Amino acid sequence: MALAAGALIKRSLSRLIGCRAELFAAASTARFHSAPETLWQNTVPPLDSAGSLINRFASLVVGAGPAGLAVATSLLDSACDPILWVDPHFQSGRLHSYLDVPSNTKTKLFIQFAEWPQHTASSAPEAVRHFQDQDPDKGCQLQLAQEMVTSMTHGLHRDHADKVCLQRGRVTSMVLEDGLWNINEGRAFAKRAYLATGSHPRDDSPYPDLQKLDLDDALIPSKLSGLVSSEDTVCVIGSSHSAVLVLMNLLEMRDGPKVVNLHRSPMKYAKYLTDGTIILDNTGLKGVAADWSREKIETQHFEQTGRLQRVNISETPQEAVQQAVSACNKIVSAVGFNRNPLPKIVVEGKQLSSNDIRHDPHSGVIIPDRLFGYGIAFPEKVVDPEYGHTENNIGLLKFMKYVRKTCLARARTEGSAAGFSVMHRTA
């Protein structure tokens, strides 16, 4: 019997070898640094009881950053499997670009993110060991968070390959037909789709004559040091967490440039209340950025040395703003993010434009019962408890809480996977 089962699996895998390379177009060749390359090359769709390869899924998850991981684990905990999870790299999304950047999140919140899902419980101790030498009430380098997400992804693949198919590649098209998403022209089908496709820094500069420095590069001191010198004057737009980190990197650089900082409002700082509430949780400075700003910006330390000129463009005449900018030859914009490109999405024969893709910021719903969005591209909206303004709720644990709150609620209402808990097989 064991020999027969082995032969069945061997035949099924042989069938897969011929089609795997074309399952998804534009497959990435990037390396997964925490595990052998063969971990992903050998990932196969699960087999049903008859040994047939599955190409129909209860859920499609697009993107494997923190939000995608939160969605995949929440769907598993909600019994909304089998799941097809697609990403070009499976390297924790944009976290992989910010390894040397200090977080504005306390270490203990990263640990809570890892320990929350039931289906990654066995891999959680390994995932959080990266934090063992960190103060739980302070931030840490984002490399540790990246290693945590990567470790959890690895553990999910290792422990639940029968429920989650990790496919490295890209979803290029999604067509809703007869209640199912037709993915990449028939390569796979899913009842529901979850977009966790991420965002990238806005690069629309109001001063096109200045040489642009990518925000991603400006956030990494080792990269930034090769892009500027004492001969430069760099214009930094913004007063966000990212903007302050860029200011810190530029101004603490030995033989660094002069800096002109354009901003609209004074620095804002998150305030922690005794009941756990955080005022300006998403827009206020935290951690290293807050400490440095209080020490060096609020005291006008660098302005007194002639290295920094701060210009409030809401209060300064336009002529004076232009004069300050005219002294600059390079520019970094740190004023937000734009959504990454989405797959082609067709519903009822109509291709949806970017303006058609709107999500409910309280439920994640884009198309009721069929399409949902999460993460920085489709954030939850929350109201600041003191000032009353609306903020995008951004952060790993915030993503996890939001996804679980909405996914688990839908599962309870709709009866788990609504008939998709049994795997479908190819004909």
From TrEMBL:
<dbReference type="InterPro" id="IPR036188">
    <property type="entry name" value="FAD/NAD-bd_sf"/>
</dbReference>
<dbReference type="InterPro" id="IPR053275">
    <property type="entry name" value="Agnestin_monoxygenase"/>
</dbReference>
<protein>
    <recommendedName>
        <fullName>FAD/NAD(P)-binding domain-containing protein</fullName>
    </recommendedName>
</protein>
